[in-house]
Amino acid sequence: xxxxxxxxxxxxxxxxxxxxxxxxxxxxxxxxxxxxxxxxxxxxxxxxxxxxxxxxxxxxxxxxxxxxxxxxxxxxxxxxxxxxxxxxxxxxxxxxxxxxxxxxxxxxxxxxxxxxxxxxxxxxxxxxxxxxxxxxxxxxxxxxxxxxxxxxxxxxxxxxxxxxxxxxxxxxxxxxxxxxxxxxxxxxxxxxxxxxxxxxxxxxxxxxxxxxxxxxxxxxxxxxxxxxxxxxxxxxxxxxxxxxxxxxxxxxxxxxxxxxxxxxxxxxxxxxxxxxxxxxxxxxxxxxxxxxxxxxxxxxxxxxxxxxxxxxxxxxxxxxxxxxxxxxxxxxxxxxxxxxxxxxxxxxx
Length: 349
Ligand code: GDP
Ligand code: MN
Fold this sequence. Notes:
Layout: H1 5-8, E1 29-34, H2 40-53, E2 61-66, H3 72-81, E3 86-90, H4 104-116, H5 125-136, E4 149-152, E5 158-159, H6 167-174, E6 178-180, E7 183-185, H7 194-204, H8 215-218, E8 229-231, E9 236-239, H9 240-243, H10 246-258, H11 260-263, H12 268-279, E10 285-287, E11 293-295, E12 298-300, H13 305-310, H14 329-335
Parallel strand pairs: 1-2, 1-4, 2-3, 6-10
Antiparallel strand pairs: 4-9, 5-11, 6-9, 7-8, 11-12
The structure holds guanosine-5'-diphosphate (GDP) and manganese (II) ion.
Keywords: Glycosyltransferase, Signal, Signal-anchor, Transferase, Transmembrane
Protein name: DEKNAAC101007
Family: Belongs to the glycosyltransferase 15 family.
């Protein structure tokens, strides 16, 4: 017969690992998750959310970090879920333990006191190691060195809307350094001396504060006190060079020496947020008003119906925290003179 051979050829399936939607121009970027082996079944849901809403089109890698060795079950399950490459790292002991200059008796007395005062995670040692690690070390892990951008994902989160653009390329093209979805004031009991310590650091190193910083976001009185506003760090998209900068490395070291990760309960969220607000020009901090996000107990659900419909968001705008009285995103819009989305008043309080 005279059928053209080429017509009979079955088209090769598209390589599932080939990036689409960004013309194959992949940014050096990765998801990163700190987790324990027992977190795996809460984590698969988060991975599924990220994959279904975003990464099935882009196939970015995923780095998993743990203070203990990951077991085979954790690796098997997460590898099956992620459409990019997966990497598994163990954290060096000296980055997950008491530094030698910490008085462990004093730290124990603080935990006892915080337990009695019922301060959230106040009695936990591992939570403090976690906060210190996320503040000062995750970006220096050898597995992270090959990457320029990261997106932090925790177990139990939801992504409510389709993300049809390459978030990392968008970050790179716009020179964004830090992105967030939710912001609120920190519990003051966990950070009694964080601001005093920060002020001492910037008095000694004024050159690190950007002349167009977003200091007015974290202070209502020109810098004399901290208003507690922080970006919720269970979701972060960022440029790793922010944390690898001389300014941040010195700042972290200064905080670490001061001991507040153990003598108080400094979280990585206020530490990252204060640094981003001081060391970056304000235009490098990005609020994601289009992705929809949940981590217990707060929701970000785009209040603009046009956004929700076009991105197929599966959330109720009545649950949105963004414009509620307690949310610091109101302040973010104000200090940056941004226009709030249509219909926001309906969802404030
Ligand atoms: P919360 O969101 O502040 O309530 O804190 P989480 O319990 O979600 O912990 C924050 C992140 O650190 C999550 O990604 C956890 O999986 C991880 N994490 C917390 N504690 C530990 C720990 O002791 N070891 C490891 N490897 N990961 C931890
Ligand atoms: Mn969490």
